[in-house]
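I'd like us to work through together how a protein chain folds, taking it slowly. To get us started, please write out a protein record for me. Label the sequence line and the structure token line clearly, so we can match residues to local backbone shapes. Once you have written the record down, we can walk along the chain together.
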Amino acid sequence: MMILVTYDVNTETAAGRSRLRKVAKICVNHGQRVQNSVFECDLEPAHFITLKNDLEEIIDMHRDSLRFYLLGKNWESRVEMMGKNPTYHPQKDPFIF
């Protein structure tokens, strides 16, 4: 299923900047970055649970936020893109971890 992951990590402190790097690294390992803090992830349900748990261990619940948009299997009809970044199709384009 296609999941859109977005995050906002407070980077006012060194600890916040460290959390930001860790969150980004985990997201890169699970999907394709489409904007600075936005990732498209094509995941099996078990991998989605793992991703959420890994991110929950890192973020500060009082300073940071995570959002998961579950787009499902028919995500292509729900996503429109405009602008400079080339279109990426996770099921057709190669993805290397």
